[in-house]
Amino acid sequence: MDPIGFRGRIQLSDGSPSPNAEVAVSRPVGRVFAGVLSYNRKEIAVICLRALLRQTRPVDQVVVFDNGSTDGTRDYLEREGLLALENVTFVRIEKNIGPAAGFTALFQHCYAEGCDWLWVMDDDVIPEPNALEELASAYNTNFSTPESIGLLASCLRSSDGQPNNVPDIDNRQEGSAPPRWAELLGQGLVRIQFSTLCADFIPRSTMEKFGFPCADFYYGGEDIDYTIRITRERPSYLVGKSKALHMRAVTGKFHILAETDPARIPFYYYFYRNQLYLRRAYLGRYSLVRFLILGIWDACLAAPRGKMGRSMSATVLRGLAAGIFFQPSRSKPP
Asked: What is the number of domains present in the chain?
């Protein structure tokens, strides 16, 4: 049994319409682009695209940003008939620039092409057929203008049925007022402090004010940085009825002490650097000091584990040191 109630309407190669394709649903004003960041996951990318094309609230344009794939992604999508569709755009760069810069370029392209809403995700996110309809309904029911919100986020579960990429509840207070995370709970919406750009529904007005994700993060953290900057000024919500499957290759907590692949160790430099910066910038001194101490402890635990352990330890310490001085730049629409 599918853990998130997936209806089985997404197939890999046939072109039959979704059983729900004829359902009339409300639309936010303007054009909705689904932006997909893709890298070397051609089979999963096809499943993602077919899920987007079979939404009960149709997507106006699907944009695939191929971040330098080497597995023949474009040819594979062509053979599946997806690139012949008028509402599918394929954008490719020859060399992988990292996920943060990839998201930046994807946002810039969709904004330049005139999207009014961007539904952004990785290529391993498989939305349920009514996921976009529920996002649109949440907006239409509860808000009067796009400027009323920062973003709306879908609920994700991993292949093993566990909640995945769960946003933090917004417990911030204004003066003596209580936290407002439950203000729309009766409508199935929870106010959040940040999200992860996995099936996030972002109005153009948010991009106009806050720009795009920051490419300087390179790997990880650009999503939290971007969405925290948004939620500090505009309320943002997790939409309980909008659901998607996140087909991550590795589930569970991302942690260097659990890593078994030496090739992945360099990525943890960016993790520790970026996470330290986020605590410096947004989360306060206690969170900063705690992360610094835990990071040094990780380095101490890794060091006795032979050659790979020493590499882990050095990576952690370099990342923490860089995080003290890291100052990412920002980009906004021209």
From this structure: 2
Q: Is the pLDDT confidence value at 71 over 50?
A: yes
Q: What is d(CA 220, CA 90) in angstroms, rounded to the nearest whole number?
A: 24
Alpha helices in 232-305 (DSSP H): 265-278, 285-302
Whether residues 108 and 199 fall in one domain: yes
pLDDT for position 262: 92
Which tens digit of pLDDT belongs to each residue from 224-275? 999 999 999 999 999 999 999 999 766 556 789 999 899 999 999 999 999 9
CA distances from 150 to 8, 120, 143, 194, 276 (A): 32, 14, 11, 10, 25
Question: Would residue 15 count as lying in a domain?
Answer: no
Residues 163 and 310 in one domain: no
What does each C-alpha distance from 24 to 1, 137, 226 come to in angstroms? 29, 12, 33
Q: What is the pLDDT of residue 250?
A: 60
Q: Closest Cα to residue 201, out of 102, 135, 133?
A: 135
Closest CA to 27 of 107, 116, 108: 116
Q: Residue 274: its pLDDT value, please? A: 97
Q: What mean pLDDT is predicted for residues 51-64? A: 97
Percent share of the chain, pLDDT over 70: 90
Query: At residue 110, what are phi and psi to the nearest 5 degrees?
Result: -65, -40
Record the tokens describing residue 246, joined without a space: 């996140």
Are 151 and 230 in contact, with CB atoms under 8 Å apart?
Answer: yes
Domain span including residue 110: 32-246
Last residue within a domain, chosen from 246, 271, 291:
246
Note whether 176 and 282 are same-domain residues.
no
**In this model, does residue 12 exceed pLDDT 50?**
no
Mean pLDDT for the chain overall: 89
**98 contacts 218 by C-beta, under 8 angstroms:** yes
Regarding whether 311 and 165 lie in a shared domain, the answer is no
The SS3 of residue 145 is coil
Contact (CB, 8 A) for 153 and 238 = yes
The pLDDT assigned to 249 comes to 63
Clarify whether residues 208 and 141 are in a common domain. Answer: yes
CATH code for the domain in which residue 136 is found: 3.90.550.10
